[in-house]
Amino acid sequence: MRKNKPNSLYIHIPFCESICDYCDFTKLQYFRNFAEKYLSVLEKELSNPELNKDLKTIYVGGGTPTSLEDDLFLRLLKAIDPLSKKAIEYTFECNPESLTLSKIKMMKEYGVNRISIGVESTDDKVLKAINRHHTFSDVIKAVDLLRKNGIDNINLDLILGLPNVSEKMLEKDIKNILSLSPTHISCYSLTVNEHTVFSIKKISPPSEEFSYNAYKMINNILINNGYEHYEVSNWAKKGKRSEHNLTYWRNETYYGIGLGASGYEDNIRYRNTTNLNKYLNNKNIREEEIVTIKDLEEYQIMLNLRTDEGLDLAKFLNLFKYDLYKNKKEVIESYISSNYLYIENNVLKATFDGLLILDKIVIDLFR
After folding, report:
1. Could you tell me how many helices (H) and strands (E) the chain has, helices first?
2. Domains along the sequence of the chain with CATH
3. pLDDT tens by residue, 165-206
């Protein structure tokens, strides 16, 4: 089992200026007194001498990290700084309306070299309807401000399947996003989770047919514009794949710090408490899953197949001492003949259609 120290770190900042109708992440309304107490606990976690000081990637997500006021934002950057010296990719999630010039300059000074902006839609009426507090004009200004201040590795997020958004509107969204020439684009299909406003309003997620047609349309446009479809929901310019997220999909270990953050160390996958009071009182009670060899096999298959790197069958044989292809030849060949899987240089990969039914493929490989 794994005993090496993780090379990646995820830090969760749960605060938001407002709560979006679809959001199911660990989040809460921003209040300065809570944010100050939260940073005090976070600083203790980040100063843990057991943490690997030679991290390769750092990702600060939320919530909205840029919802912090400038002095607290600087305090956060200073707390992370000792761990970021050797990071090749250091990402902050941002909302366009809270991405100010002062915050950009601070991030640049402390080595942040990648920004992920929650765009979600480029239609101002749709944004207002889902309780987003920015316009597409704000996104344009934010991207311009980042580039003028030396940060040009930019991801833009889009949600597919929002209420009353047609395929034609979605096509306009993707073309608007392309007009900004981001290095990376993420398109996530809407999920409606319990206890969200969308759930209370009984809004339905997109149909399988809509999702398939929308993903296919988006994929064709992005591929034709020089982006690589390297993971189910992610496209990148050459050399601009998210190194941090590839840690997850390669089934490698990572630290999770902050309220509700998930991590994977040694053979334990964990999730920190989502109870703010417990967290602020240093009671970071976490849920833990002991990863067995069988679990590890499943994660390896499920996560590796999400990317165009695929599942290396020789590596799998070396790790788990059995030949997946020989053991599941009938299942694999069936999916190959249906154009859902293919094998290239002894690496099992999913086709575009295969990526969209990956859950079923993984289940069949584990029956």
Report:
1. 16, 17
2. 8-249 (3.80.30.20), 292-367 (1.10.10.920)
3. 899 999 999 999 999 999 999 998 876 555 655 655 656 666
